Amino acid sequence: GAGVSQSPSNKVTEKGKDVELRCDPISGHTALYWYRQSLGQGLEFLIYFQGNSAPDKSGLPSDRFSAERTGGSVSTLTIQRTQQEDSAVYLCASSSTRGADYEQYFGPGTRLTVT
Amino acid sequence: GNSVTQMEGPVTLSEEAFLTINCTYTATGYPSLFWYVQYPGEGLQLLLKATKADDKGSNKGFEATYRKETTSFHLEKGSVQVSDSAVYFCALSPYSGYSTLTFGKGTMLLVSP
């Protein structure tokens, strides 16, 4: 029973470069969430995918951030023209939408450092 | 909007001491409340939850009671262990179901032998 996996585990990039972060949810989970954990802001919601519905993008901090979810499974979070304030741990979570178990299961995160 | 406020840490205790980590929230309607824990070097995991007023969530000796009248969900444990050292996050979702979480800033707990 694999949990949520994320890659890479660590990413160091130069300011101005684009980065892609990947999330593999638990098989069968139709809900997928991205959060960001930073020293100054704590844990913040970024974006939420639920099945085939339009994603809830209300937490994305700027238009440099985007995410997609292909085939209802794997998700990629893309940050364009990275800035130093983007340095954080990016967490992905997934949950089932069956029955009453809507617990969000978190991945180990991707630590992004923008130099 | 929704918000969660929890006590700042670090909280430093000796083994077998009593633990309380305060958490209060602001939300409309009937949110669900959660405590998540992040052990050193590990991912975030759900510790306990409560979905309606007066519910008590419990797990691993930790307890928290959903108090609507005081909008609180304080985490307690009667006797902490060194292995409880971690960062604890209080969180809410606006309703019982599939929804995003609003987190507090986290409280680090350090337990010494």
Write a structural description.
Chain A has no helices and 10 strands. By secondary structure, chain A is an all-beta fold. In chain A, the strands form 2 sheets. In chain A, strands 2, 4, 5, 8, 9 and 10 form a 6-stranded mixed sheet that branches. The model of chain A has no long low-confidence stretch (mean pLDDT 91). Chain B is mainly beta and 113 residues long. Helix content of chain B is 0%, strand content 50%. Chain B has strands at residues 3-6, 11-14, 19-21, 23-26, 32-38, 44-50, 56-59, 62-65, 75-77, 86-93, 102-103, 107-112. In chain B, the strands form 3 sheets. In chain B, strands 2, 5, 6, 10, 11 and 12 form a 6-stranded mixed sheet that branches. A 4-stranded antiparallel sheet of chain B has the order 3-9-8-7, with no helix packed on it. The A-B interface holds A 4, 31, 33, 35, 42-45, 48, 50, 56, 59, 91, 93, 95, 97, 102-104, 106-109 and B 42-46, 49, 89, 91, 96-106.
This entry's quaternary arrangement is heterodimer
| Beta-strand residue fraction of chain B | over 45%
Major pleated sheet of chain B: 6 strands, mixed
Largest interface: A-B, 23 and 19 residues
User: In angstroms, what separates the terminal alpha carbons of chain B?
Assistant: 41 Å
Note the main sheet of chain A. Answer: 6 strands, mixed
Which radius of gyration of chain B do the C-alpha atoms yield?
A: 13 Å
User: How do the SSEs of chain B run, as a string of H and E?
Assistant: EEEEEEEEEEEE
Spans of chain A of at least 5 consecutive residues whose pLDDT stays below 50 are none
Would you tell me the overall average pLDDT of chain A?
91
Unreliable stretches of chain B: none
Write down the overall mean pLDDT of chain B: 93
Question: How many DSSP E strands of chain B?
Answer: 12
